[in-house]
Every structure is written in structure tokens, then in C-alpha cells.
Amino acid sequence: MADLAAPASSADLAAPASPADLAALVALADDVIGDRADAWDRAGAIPDEVVRKLAARGVLCAQIPARWSGAGLSSADNGELTAFVGSRCSSLRSLMTSQGMAAWTVQRLGDTSQRAAYLPRLAGGELAAVAFSEPAAGSDLAAMDSRIEPDGDRVVVSGEKVWITAACYADLLVVFGRYGDGTAAVVVPASAPGVTVERVPEPMGCRAAGHAHVRLDGVRVPGADVLGGVGQPTTLVITTALSYGRMSVAWGCAGILRCCLAEVSAHARRREQFGRPLGEHQLVARHVAELLAAEQTATRMCAHASHCWDTRSPEVVSATVLAKYVSSRHAAAGAAAAVQVLASAGARDSHPVARAYRDAKLMEIIEGSNEICELILAGHALGTRY
Ligand code: FAD
What we know:
Blueprint: H1 19-33, H2 37-43, H3 48-56, H4 75-88, H5 90-109, H6 112-123, E1 128-131, E2 147-151, E3 154-164, E4 172-179, E5 182-189, E6 195-199, E7 212-222, E8 226-232, H7 234-270, E9 272-273, E10 276-277, H8 282-310, H9 316-342, H10 352-363, H11 370-382
Parallel strand pairs: 1-4
Antiparallel strand pairs: 2-3, 3-7, 4-5, 5-8, 6-7, 9-10
Helix pairs in contact: 1-4, 4-5, 4-7, 5-6, 5-7, 7-8, 7-9, 7-10, 8-9, 9-10, 9-11
């Protein structure tokens, strides 16, 4: 597969972060999340000051290189940070995915002045969401109908986007649409006249991730905010953003599995039935073993994909699709097994395994559903392109 997700130039490669950088960001996230994830999930929102604090410290898009004021983490270190946040709060991890995807789209598709204009803002606390999906264009993004049309030195953006993660928090929307004969992405302020953001009611999971439907009615922005120039091939534009999103979701799923493994292990040691701890019953022990294997498999798939990213390997696109596919399947199955082992103890919405169960299922749908990932992987194996 083509190296669509590689940085624009070697100068854009993130310098390897020192372990202290990663440890400091993990400690900050740990401190800020604390035991608040359940309350955020119930409220359907993370307090604005919490999100702003993490954004201002660069936690939400820690892969932005230092020369644009980012934390400059490698993909591997950003992955571990993402897994940590994902193990505690998938809603917050979803905001990281959107913010990082927006930053990566600017870094990869933007020109020098667009990078200089937007990346420090994203690293410094402004919040972003990424909008592809439309009512009639879900898996089939080539069917996108939103339009970006030139009008003098401005462009007019019109269309309807659905299920946009983080849109309720966003200052900036990276909107994808038709431009000329191809596709482009354009940066639209969420406060621009003609933008309407309507919260998705009662999402099944990641309930505090600020999903919203977004209407753009003749929104006028400077033509200089179109990323990637006039009408690039749709596959290039979309795959660029999705590659970051898939990597981030894959690491988030490794985090979900870490959470489930820890909860299951503790419960299986503590809870006794038939005169023995649950973990000494072989059928329960099998669940524990399978969760351990799933967590290790997901982590290694993610680490390999991040290694491909950090070394600019041409394998990066397929490795990232594979990591997202394997990790999300394991997370959905592993979270279901965790609820099974905890049984009544985990059968409340507020329990971490119940939240993991709801959150993990959604990971099989987003950033290219698992069926779409299967088509891409089969095309890779068969030497055809999906
Ligand atoms: P459909 O495309 O209608 O698919 C329905 C089912 O058919 C799926 O199982 C799918 O895999 C299957 N299917 C479709 N085509 C094929 C095929 N050719 N072969 C085999 N099976 C197929 N979008 C954004 O732009 N930005 C976001 O931030 C964002 N965040 C999201 C967060 C959540 C929690 C959710 C649920 C969605 C989000 N989305 C976002 C939208 C998401 O990308 C789409 O839901 C996803 O692409 C699937 O599209 P769809 O829901 O329209 O399903």
C-alpha cells in the first residue's frame, strides 16, 4: 500500500521524546482524570476547564513536533499516552483522537504557512474536530456531498456532517468535502456564521465525547484555509486523516483491554464461589488468559504500527489498519468477557467494565468499520486495492 500517512518531509518527523516527557504527560492525565470518568460519562460531558487544561498542556495532540510548540512525542510514546487515557476514560481518549487527527491533517496536507498558523494553536489549547461523515456517506466517503466552492479569495462551505466526535467542544472544525474534481479539507471556525452544532442525543458509549451533527450553510472562510490545495484525490485526503485516527483508536483499545484485565484479575482473586476464588475455576481462568493474550496482542500490533509510523515504513497504512482491526475486535470481545466474569458486580452502567463494554463496541464502527478494514486488509493480501 502507498505510504499515504508518512510525514510531508523529514523535517516534520518527531524527535524521539525522552521517557520523562511521556511520564510527565501520563502523570498529568492521571491527576486530571482521577476517578472522575464515571461522573463525566453520566453528565455526558467533561468539564470545559478540564479539557482546556489538558489541551493547553499538549496532551490531546502530543505528537505535534516541538518546532510547532507541541510535545513532540513519537507515535510509539503518544500511543502509550493514548492507551493510558483509554484505560481510564474513552471519552477523553476520543477527544485526543479528534484533536490529533486534526493536527495531523494540517501537518500532512497543509503548506508551510498553514502549519505555522494552526499547529501551535492546536498544541496550545484550541480544540478541534474532524468532519467526514454525512447522512448518505458513512462507510462510502466517496459519496460525500459537502461542497467547498471558491468565491474570490474566499471559499463557501456547505453540507451536513453527522456524528462528529468532539464537535461540542471544538473551536475549529476540519471539514472534508468536494472541491473541484477532487476532495479537500478546510479549517472552519465553529463560531463562523452558518455553522450549527447539534449534540447527538444519548450515544451508546463514549458519552462525554461531545458527538454532534454539524450543518454548514454557506459558511464563508478564507481560501487560504483550504488544506491540500485544489481537489486532491479523495483516497489520499481521507486516508491521511484516517491513518492517525486508526492508530489512536487502536491504542485506545489496548487501554480498554488493560482496564478490563486489571478489573477481572482483581475480582477473580477476591470473589469466592464454591469455596474457592473465581480465578481457580478453570472456565473463569480461561477468560483471564484470553484477556491477557488480547491485551498483549493489541499492544504489540499497535507498537508495530507505531514503529512503522516513526520509521516512515511504507507498511504504515496496512499496519495501522491491522492494529485498529485487531485491537477493536479484541476490546469489544474482551470487555464483554470482563462483564461476564464480574457478573452482577459489573452489571451497572457506572462500573468501568460496563463503560468499557459500551465504549469498545463503538470502536468497531469508527475510523472505517471493521468490515471496511477487512476489505482493505483482504485487498492488501490479494494485491488488489479496495
Ligand atoms: P454504514 O456505512 O451505513 O454501514 C452499515 C454497516 O454496513 C456497517 O456494519 C458497515 O461495516 C457495513 N458496510 C458498509 N459498506 C460495506 C461494504 N462495502 N462491505 C461490507 N460491509 C459494509 N464521523 C466523522 O466524520 N467524524 C467523527 O469524529 C466521527 N466520530 C464518530 C464517533 C462515533 C461514536 C460513531 C458511532 C460514529 C462516528 N463517526 C464520525 C461516523 C463514523 O465514521 C461512521 O458511523 C462509520 O464510518 C460507519 O458509517 P455508517 O454509520 O453510516 O454505517
